[in-house]
Amino acid sequence: MAKLLLYLTLATSLIPLFSVAFSPENPTDRRVLVLVDDFAIKSSHSLYFGSLTSRGFQLEFKLADDPNIGLQRYGQYLYDALVLFCPSVERFGGSIDVASIVDFVDSGHDLIVAADSNASDLIREVATECGVDFDEDPAAMVIDHINYAVSNFDGDHTLIASDDFIKADVILGSKKIEAPVLFQGIGHSLNPANSLVLKVLSASSSAYSANPKSKLSNPPSLTGSAISLVSVVQARNNARILITGSLSMFSNRSGVQKAGSSIKHEKSGNEQFLTEISKWVFHERGHLKAVNVRHHKVGESDEPAIYRINDDLEYSVEIYEWSGTSWEPYVSDDVQVQFYMMSPYVLKTLSTDQKGHYSAEFKVPDVYGVFQFKVEYQRLGYTSLSLSKQIPVRPYRHNEYERFLPAAYPYYGSAFSMMAGFFIFTIVHLYSK
Amino acid sequence: MVGKTESQNGAVKATAAPAMNLESDLFSNFSFKSFKLKTKQQELLLRVSILGLVYILAFITRLFSVLRYESMIHEFDPYFNYRTTLFLTEKGFYEFWNWFDSESWYPLGRIIGGTLYPGLMVTAAFIYWTLRFLRFAVHIREVCVLTAPFFASNTTVVAYFFGKEIWDSGAGLVAAAFIAICPGYISRSVAGSYDNEGVAIFALLLTFYLFVKAVNTGSLAWALASAFGYFYMVSAWGGYVFIINLIPLYVLVLLITGRYSMRLYVAYNCMYVLGMLLAMQIRFVGFQHVQSGEHMAAMGVFFLMQVFYFLDWVKYMLSDTKLFQAFLRITVTSAIAVGALALGVGTASGYISPWTGRFYSLLDPTYAKDNIPIIASVSEHQPTAWSSFMFDFHILLFLFPAGLYFCFKKLSDATIFIVMYGLTSMYFAGVMVRLILVATPAVCLISAIAVSATIKNLTSLLRTKSKTAVAGSSKGTGGSKASSKASFDQSQPFQKNGAIALLLGAFYLLSKYATHCTWVTSEAYSSPSIVLAARGAHGNRVIFDDYREAYFWLRQNTPPDAKVMSWWDYGYQITAMGNRTVIVDNNTWNNTHIATVGRAMSSYEDEAYEIMRSLDVDYVLVVFGGVTGYSSDDINKFLWMVRIGGGVFPVIKEPDYLVNGDYRVDKGAAPKMLNCL
Predict the structure, then answer these.
(1) Which part of the chain is the Oligosaccharyl transferase STT3 N-terminal domain (chain B) (predicted)?
(2) Does residue B523 sit within a domain?
(3) B185 and B49, same structural domain?
(4) pLDDT tens across A386-401, in order?
């Protein structure tokens, strides 16, 4: 009872502090709920958890079937991220279920799912919601008879050493991962209808997914590099999800020698790989924001409510990337702006001053209507930027046309000569008698 | 109200005879001058008071809707007019003239100033400003609501003068009384029906009156006035095309029947040239007036007039008839050849645009159905049923042929005009329901001639019988025809009783007309269609205000820049009342855009989603009237969405939505119908 009271006071005193932790201004997660099957994982995976705590995350460990767990209270989420290290759980305790996890992600929070062979239907269901399908055979594991990790005894080659990483610095950091990553667990495939899910670590072409204990009677359903070992999803609301079929990947095991390779690494690549990818998942990297979207006529500084056709205008936006502690200028040369009305009328690459300020000058097309300035910036690993700003474009006013057209001078001349002629004719006709 | 109308009709008949008495006697008999002046004053007083009563009657008979519901704008288009008028009064004329509206036709936008007829808005704003100047603190909405009744009252005055011009002042008074309560006109001019037609009928009749006056007098001033009347008409309504085709047709008929005169030449040339120049100042018309096919008839007749005049002059100069005959032949052939060549070259080079679909559909009632579903989809563009003729004209329908008979009996330039106006507009009224409105003034005038002439004959009969002493003067009054009839009837023994019976019959018919008009106005034409009323089970009135509630929901619960997609009927109301951007509205200028919306409405949800994303749609408004049995909901309009969508995008096929050729909306409906948006 006293413990509960202490917990409550602690929680209530921290809530105001935490509630500002995750915000558009400061997108890194702070409060992480880790659901485990048993607390032994806490020590067996201590290296990974240690790297998280050292970066300032507050981890809260709970048993997956703890009846008191819940993701939100009074409509407020208590956590910024959820880590599911509970592959065998059949039913979550408390108020958590698949729908509430999906809602959690839908409201922009992050998720790490680690399955294992014999993963429960519940974890499979969560994974399916995220766009990946684990091998349907519950006893199947990824087997690779060529790229396995050499160990003391000749095993069944389910501990594989993989180094087939995605080539994206923003996800895995700029430092190359030298050592292969140890993986032991179930493989999964990506749902082809889901365009948001990415393979980060895929199996080699000689891998296949089957039950190592039984004889292979049918050809395995998942083979080669179609097997994904680690996948990430960046949802449309920029929530990030990491899915892997191996819980032991996060463990403290070290030292690896890839079969067929003479180099024996003292440390496996797991630590570096997982540290970097969790930096990405927890929004310490690759999170962009655009501020100060402005546009004005060339030579003016105020933003008009409406443009006229053929005006020259200048559009500018500032883009920053979150570095984990502060907003740094984002530098790229491929940010484009569209001047859009049902289709882009102007498509222009923004020029940058290397300090995060992007700008472009262009002429409004000779078409009136309701246009939009659109910046659709989607790059691998970065959060997507989708800016649109509506602006109507009007035609000329009645007094903005040219007053005298050179082409029409013959007509002016004829009109005035006609008038003069008529006047003279009248005088002659009336007074010449 | 009924009683008042009757008394007016009675009074008209009573005054008709003295009016004529006076005119004939005034010049012949100076000895009675002092006495006659008195009757003249009496008669003038009577005439003015009758006209005044008719003026007031025309106004108050249109106020049913204000009394029943409230002072509000009706229907669909008036909401747009109201919104623009509001803009005009708030921002001033130049802003209005250059107004680019980004709230309608998203994302194309609409240049309001260049795509509307500003006459109505400027008129209402002018009335508003005048009232404000006189320190009457009125709201612009009240002005808008009452503009149409006010102009209906003015129309009665014009009708009086027109009737006086073509027949006599008695016919004018009857015409004024008829048009004041004629349901065909009331349908478009009740309080709250703030639409172009309300002002345009006044302008139309005014233009015609001034033109006939100009033809009768040959005066430049009247022709000038009619040009300005035409300008007002052009600024008020697209129906001005009727004027610019009817007048040349009339001139052509006069030329063919050998009634060409200098008066006609002056009237037509002045009216056409000045009217054209003025009409081109309206941005929506602009160069169409010299370039489009609808206006070519007027230009052709204009040149024909010059050829006629030239020939006249040559005939005057040449004394030799043979030589003139040869010259005539050459000139006419070359003139026709040059005209045909110019028209051919102009059409081929695209300088003269061909006739528009609406014009075609007027001439050929089946054209729109086959080619332009968007025109055919509007209920007021349907061919008229005979019952609605009866409904809108009542006894005028029978009096119309009688009036034509009288017109033919006493043929003049003016009566030829009214006959042509009546016949052409009756044809158009048969083609489209809404054009009954254009026919109404003609029908009223011609019927008024019939009533006035008949009653005058009958009363003069009575007079001759009772007072043989004034038989001579009475003979002068009724005109040659009437007096001959009267003298013929004198031989008959029952003629007095017969005349009394006929008069009573006429009064009975006229009182029936008045009752009918009041009933129609109160029951059929005074409901604002945006607020629905129904009789409950106990005869009580139930009011459904769902439309306005929906629009206010939009106004208060959606972000200010939200885009609402709906079928185009509701576009104007959403922008005016909901203050939200719409994709399409009642100004159906871009068929493709409407078809896109129709396609979105009639596609499967996932396809529709893509279309709507491309249009940035945030909300969709659909109307369902199933519970109350409201018949003009979107389910009913759905087939038109399919047809209009299919007209541009052939992937949409009407048979997909039908079951064995039937349109069903229950569970037996076609699968595509059930699964679409």
Answers:
(1) 50-446
(2) no
(3) yes
(4) 888 888 898 888 888 8
